[in-house]
Design goal:
The structure is a single chain. This protein is mainly α and 292 residues long. It has 13 helices and 3 strands. Helix 1 packs antiparallel against helix 2, helix 6 runs antiparallel to helix 8 and helix 10 crosses helix 13. The radius of gyration is 22 Å and the shape is globular.
Length: 292
C-alpha cells in the first residue's frame, strides 16, 4: 500500500501539478484509509468497506467536511489505481460524493480591518513588513501559502498589481490598490533592506534571519496583531481572504470578477459569499426595520 501511495503522490505532484499542501492532504487521508484496512489487500477492498470507513470517521467525531474530503481523496486514489491497471474494479465508482453543509466563513467588519492594519509598529523594520503583508492580504485575497511565496519580481508597483501561482500552479494577476501599494513601497525602501542586512533574497517577505516567511510564522504574527487590535474571536489568514471577497461584493463587484481574483476554478466555490451577503442583509433588516 505504501508503494501505491507514494506513486499516487508523485502522480498528483508531477502530472496533476497539485500544490505540496494538497498532495500532503491527499496522502494523509489515504494513509488513514490504509491504516483502517491494514490487514487487507487493496485489490480486495469493496464499496461496502469504503462505506464502513466513512462511518468510522463519523463515529470518531470528524467534521462532515473532513469526511467528504477523505472520500474525495479515496475516490481519486482508486481511480488512479484503476487507470494504472493496478486493480480490476474501482470500488468507489458507485459511491456518490457527499456535499456536506458548508459553514459560512467568518468576516471582519471595516472597523476590525482598520484596527488590525493600525496594529503593526511601523517604526520598526518588522512592523513595516507586517503591515505590507496585511495590506497585501486584504487588498488581494491571496491564500496564506501564496502570500509567503510572493517574489520581488512578481510585484509591479507602477502598474499596481502582482502575479501569483494558485492551486494547480495556475497563474493569475491581482490588482493591489493604493493603500497596499503605499505600504509595500514603504516596506521595500525602509523595512526590507534592514531585515536582510546586505543579504540577497528573491522573496518579498523575509524574516530577520533572511529566509522566507513561513505560513506558520505569519499565523503567529497575525494572532499577535489580532490580540493587539482587540478583535474578538479567531482570525486566520483565510478570514482576511473571506473579508476581501465579501467587502468587494458588498460594494457592487460582480461575482465573476471576484472569482478571478480569488483564483477559484469553479464559480460555485465563490457563490458561498452571496450567502454571507444574504445573512448580512437579513441582520440589517431585523435590526433597523420598524416592523422587523
Amino acid at each position: 500500500m505504501n508503494q501505491y501511495i507514494a506513486e499516487f503522490s508523485d502522480h498528483l505532484k508531477i502530472e496533476k501539478r497539485q500544490s505540496p499542501n494538497t498532495v500532503s492532504a491527499y496522502r494523509r487521508d489515504i494513509k488513514r484509509f490504509a491504516s483502517y484496512f491494514s490487514d487487507k489487500k487493496i485489490s480486495a477492498v469493496t464499496a461496502s468497506d469504503v462505506r464502513s470507513f466513512l462511518l468510522y470517521l463519523r463515529e470518531e467525531g470528524l467534521a462532515a467536511s473532513t469526511v467528504a474530503r477523505s472520500l474525495s481523496s479515496v475516490k481519486s486514489f482508486f481511480s488512479y489505481l484503476f487507470t494504472e491497471n493496478q486493480i480490476s474494479e474501482n470500488p468507489t465508482e458507485i459511491i456518490e460524493s457527499s456535499s456536506p453543509w458548508r459553514k459560512l466563513p467568518s468576516v471582519l467588519s471595516m472597523e476590525d480591518v482598520d484596527a488590525l492594519l493600525a496594529a503593526p509598529d511601523t517604526r520598526m523594520p518588522a512592523g513595516l513588513r507586517d503591515l505590507a503583508m496585511l495590506e497585501m492580504l486584504y487588498a488581494t485575497g491571496l491564500r496564506v501559502s501564496e502570500l509567503v511565496s510572493v517574489k520581488m519580481s512578481a510585484v509591479d508597483l507602477k502598474v499596481g498589481c502582482l502575479r501569483t501561482l494558485g492551486k494547480g500552479s495556475k497563474e493569475r494577476v491581482v490588482p493591489l490598490g493604493d493603500s497596499a501599494r503605499v505600504a509595500i513601497e514603504d516596506y521595500m525602501l525602509n523595512g526590507r533592506p534592514a531585515l536582510l542586512k546586505n543579504r540577497s533574497s528573491a522573496d518579498m517577505f523575509p524574516t530577520r534571519r533572511g529566509v522566507a516567511m513561513t505560513r506558520q510564522g505569519f499565523w503567529k504574527i497575525l494572532k499577535q496583531y489580532t490580540v493587539k487590535a482587540g478583535i474578538k474571536g479567531s482570525v486566520s489568514p483565510h478570514t482576511l481572504r473571506h473579508t476581501f471577497a465579501t467587502h468587494l461584493l458588498e460594494r457592487g463587484a460582480d461575482l465573476r470578477s471576484v472569482q478571478l481574483m480569488l483564483g477559484h476554478s469553479d464559480i460555485s466555490t465563490t457563490q458561498i459569499y452571496t450567502h454571507i451577503l444574504q445573512e448580512r442583509m437579513r441582520e440589517i433588516h431585523d435590526r433597523y426595520h420598524p416592523r422587523a
